[in-house]
Every structure is written in structure tokens, then in C-alpha cells.
Design brief:
It is a single chain. The chain is α/β, with parallel strands linked by helices. 32% of the residues lie in helices and 21% in strands. It has nine helices and 13 strands. The strands form three sheets. A nine-stranded mixed beta sheet has the order 1-2-13-12-3-8-10-9-11. Strands 4-7 form a two-stranded antiparallel sheet. Helix 8 links the parallel strand 12 and strand 13. Helix 8 runs parallel beside helix 9. The structure holds S-adenosylmethionine. The site of S-adenosylmethionine has 19 residues, from helix 1 and strand 13.
Amino acid sequence: MPQTPHEEPAFSYGRARLFHADSLEWLKRQPENSIHGVVTDPPYGLVEYTPVELAKLRAGRGGTWRIPPSFDGSTRSPLPRFTTLSDAELDDLERFFRNLGAALRPALVPGAHVMMAANPLVSHLVSYALDEAGLERRGEIVRLVTTLRGGDRPKNAHEEFPDVTVMPRSMWEPWLLFRKPLDGTVASNLRKWGTGGLRRVSDKAPFGDVIRSSPTRPAERSIANHPSLKPQALMRQLVRAILPVGEGVVLDPFAGSGSTLAAAEHVGYHSVGVELDPTYLALASKSIPALATLNVRD
Ligand SMILES: C[S@@+](CC[C@H](N)C(=O)[O-])C[C@H]1O[C@@H](n2cnc3c(N)ncnc32)[C@H](O)[C@@H]1O
């Protein structure tokens, strides 16, 4: 039985437990060497998930959130504006991830991997901060996904500069891959802690660092109406890989609607999640069972 945290979860389903807390505080209360892998999609603007900005999002007034127009009859989900972060906000962002790395490190077992969704505009800062916190960079997983972000002509000068695109149309999403330093060799770490590598896809196929992925489909969005919902087809592949021998506990410190926990339940792993916002906590308690049992293809 994996070592698990002592507090009462706000919600549990199967092998998944979800806690209502600030994850940086929650992590400080966890026993050393109790988490075997992390798969997470953290808040990036840092301000976009504050109560004030969430109230604006829920009232449909935007704020930090950009509410794009309808497209092909369906309203696109709102996106935070990463391009408007000031220098001070970028410093805050780096500090936040350094603190997160420092809070994660003792709770992780040696050899535990961390997979963290990022975006190309800020991934260098996050990577630097996690490295500073003493986690080893192990590469990046590229999620090949075409979105409607980027690719626009200069604002208010479309006709003047018809051949110009300001930023590339986004066709991929980086997932940073880090590992807590090993205790000995990979083999001895695997024997002692059950971590150190990633689970193979099959006997013939190692886990690879490029995953083709569709944007989250309407069927999943109707189950879990979270602006940053990640698709189960992707999450199940990432979560399965994080425990190389299929044993231990997977953590998502920014659980949102619970897509990591649902994926863990689907692949048969123990998982814990932490979510600060009570509305998303309530959403996750409904969506985890539905997402975990959903049939998906990609
Ligand atoms: C990018 S979203 C993750 C959404 C997730 N990918 C999903 O599929 O539902 C980040 C989440 O972290 C939560 N959050 C922000 N700061 C937090 C903190 N300090 N502790 C715990 N949760 C936090 C936000 O409320 C938000 O739901």
C-alpha cells in the first residue's frame, strides 16, 4: 500500500483523493518521500486564478481572461493572456515555480518524475526555476496540438502588412519533464522506490517525447467546464508513463476539474489532487467519475 497523506480529502473516488487547499501550503504538510510522480497543469498568469479574476471570467467580462468570439458556431473557451505579463509578473512567476519546486522536492521520492504543462512564452522561466529548486531537467514532451492561438496579422494594420504574422500559429504545447535526483543507479532506485524511469508504452515501444493530440473535445467540456481542461486521451498517456512500474501515488497540485486524477483512476493508479477554488473542487467531484469512465479515442 503506498504511503499517503494523513488529512481528510474533500472528495474521493476509487483510488483518487482530492484536497481543498493551497498546494504550496499542503505540500509542506506532506511526509517526506511520499509522492511517486507529478502530472500537472499549473496556473501561469498567477493572477488568472485569483478570486477577482475568476469572478470576471464567470461573469463573462474577461478581465485577464480573453473571451474569443464564436467560431464555426461554437464558442471557444476563454484563454488567459500570457503576452501581457509585465516584467514584475514574470519575476513573480519565476519565484512561484522556484517555491513550488522547493515544496515538491522533499515530498517526492528519489527518482520521481514531474511532468508540467507549459507554454512556449514562459517555459524557459519555469524550467530555470525548477532547476534552481534542485530538480533535474529530463527534456520536454511535445504535445502536437493545433490551436487558434497566434498567427494573426498586426493589429489595426492587417491591410498594410498582409504578409506578416505577429506570432507563429501555435501547433504544439510543451510539457516540461523533471526528476528528483536518484538514490543510486536507475536500477537500484527502481528496486527501492519504484521510480527513476518512465513506463514504456509497450514491450516494443518506449515512451516517446512527441504525442499527437486533439484539442479537448466538446463531450469532455460538457462534463468538465473548466477553461484549462486537458483531454483524457493525452492525460492517460502522460499519467500512465509517470509510474514506471505502475506503483505509487501520482500528484496533481493544481487539479482543476480533476483530469489528472480521472486519468490515474482510468489506468489503475493511486492519485491525490489539490485544488484551491471551491467551484472547481465541486466540479471535480462530479467530473472525475465521468471522465475516468469515458471512452476516448485520439
Ligand atoms: C490550469 S488549471 C488546471 C486545469 C486542469 N488541467 C484540468 O484539466 O481541469 C490550474 C488550477 O489550479 C488552481 N490553483 C491555482 N492556484 C492554486 C494553489 N495555490 N493551490 C491549489 N490550486 C490552485 C486553479 O483554481 C485552477 O483550477
